[in-house]
Amino acid sequence: MAKKLSPKQMRERRVLLMSAFMGAGVVGCGLLAYLPLHQQWESLLRPPGALAEKDLLASCIKCGQCVQVCPVEAIVLSDGEGGLGIGVPYIDARKQACDFSCDATQCVLACPTGALSHHIDKKEQVNMGVARLARPNACLARQGRGFKGKARGADFDGLHRYSEIDRWNPIKISDHPYDLELCDLCVRECPIEDAISLEPLSEDQAADDKSRTPVVHDKCVGCGMCEMICPVESAAIVIDQNREGPKV
């Protein structure tokens, strides 16, 4: 027969159990911060020149200087959902694409630690990722449809520098309506020449069939402009981030 515990022994046991549960809770919280990074629950698009994820986290001091110099405010600092990457810069291309037309890649120049690498050639420097037609059936061009109106609606705050209006000053996309016989927004507004094109769906496509499909080429740097400008919800074309970083 088990020996009956005294009131003092019962209190000590309760304290011990509570301590054990609290310790397990602390460890669990730590693992929750690690798992989003380890399992890549989030697909964060990093700014131009970002090192491979492990090196980026080791180098970035979360100073926010890249955020301050971005001409279209595309770069933001991740919150608690970023796991161990909290405070590290990223870009939500659907909300605001990287303005690759800023020429000098100002975020790279502003980075004081090389987390956005200063020692790479221009092609690698901006290789943030690559565009991918994620929802082909939603693409207006593949349906042979045009587009008329404001690409993302009247309330969308995303900015873009239209060279035909003012090469140096970005304006709201909602201030620039379109009237297109065939939607080609992803091609039309891509800042990289020949990075994406519209091509026939097949080699034997009928001459009177105006439907076309976006084709992404090697010159794509993953700036996210195509994802931001796509007028369908959710975007038919998205950016897959470059997780390896530049070769330094």
The succession of helices and strands, N to C, reads HHHEEHHEEEEEHEEHE
Describe the largest sheet: 2 strands, antiparallel
Shape: elongated
By DSSP (H or I, 4+ residues per run), the number of helices equals 7
Determine Rg (CA atoms, Å). 24 Å
Helical fraction: 25-40%
Going by helix content, strand content and strand pairing, the class is: alpha+beta
The residue ranges in which pLDDT falls below 50 over 5 or more consecutive positions are 37-41, 121-125
The main sheet orders its strands as 1-2
Q: Could you tell me the mean pLDDT?
A: 85
Strand content: 5-15%
Distance between the termini: 71 Å
Number of strands: 10
Question: What is the total number of structural domains?
Answer: 1
Description:
The chain is α+β, with helices and mostly antiparallel strands and 248 residues long. It has one domain (53-241). It has 7 helices and 10 strands. The chain has helices spanning 7-38, 53-59, 65-69, 106-110, 122-125, 185-188, 225-229; strands spanning 75-77, 89-91, 129-133, 147-149, 159-160, 171-172, 178-180, 196-200, 212-216, 237-241. The strands form 5 sheets. A two-stranded antiparallel sheet has the order 1-2. It has a two-stranded antiparallel sheet with strand order 3-10. It has a two-stranded antiparallel ribbon with strand order 4-7. The chain is elongated.
Q: Secondary-structure map with pairings?
A:
Elements: H1 7-38, H2 53-59, H3 65-69, E1 75-77, E2 89-91, H4 106-110, H5 122-125, E3 129-133, E4 147-149, E5 159-160, E6 171-172, E7 178-180, H6 185-188, E8 196-200, E9 212-216, H7 225-229, E10 237-241
Antiparallel strand pairs: 1-2, 3-10, 4-7, 5-6, 8-9
